[in-house]
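Comment on this:
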Amino acid sequence: MKIITKRKLLFITCGICTPLALFASKANAGSFGAEIFCTMRDGGNDHESSWDAAYTYIKKQKGGIFKVSPTQAAAQIVETVVREREKFTYCIEYLDKLHPNRQLQRNLKKEQEKKEKEAKEKEERRKQLERELEETNQDYSEEIIDRYSY
């Protein structure tokens, strides 16, 4: 009877401690990811390098089966900066790059697709003209025509 009670107590303790440990590591990863991002941006680095460093750190610290998406990592950074405003006052101006204008991205993507389509059509037209030119050249005989020979 004592063994069963001890086992139950052990399972309950593990059940309580495990989620707390997982939550603490997630919170720390987001907080330190925000520190990495803000410190690099404040130091004069561009958005891409700062974001890559912070996102890589957050992914590495998360662990587990599921990966952290870029959207989730950006949300963690924003949440940390907003929650700890006094600590990250210099970083608020950089947060807009973490959640860019989605409409602008869609427009740029459509424009890129349109350019690719036009380039593909142009290449197809060029190939068609080359084929027609080859066919036309085959119609002429290979004799040399001297226009001054009478």
Q: What stands out?
A: Residues 17-27 have pLDDT under 50 and may be disordered. The longest helix spans residues 2-42.
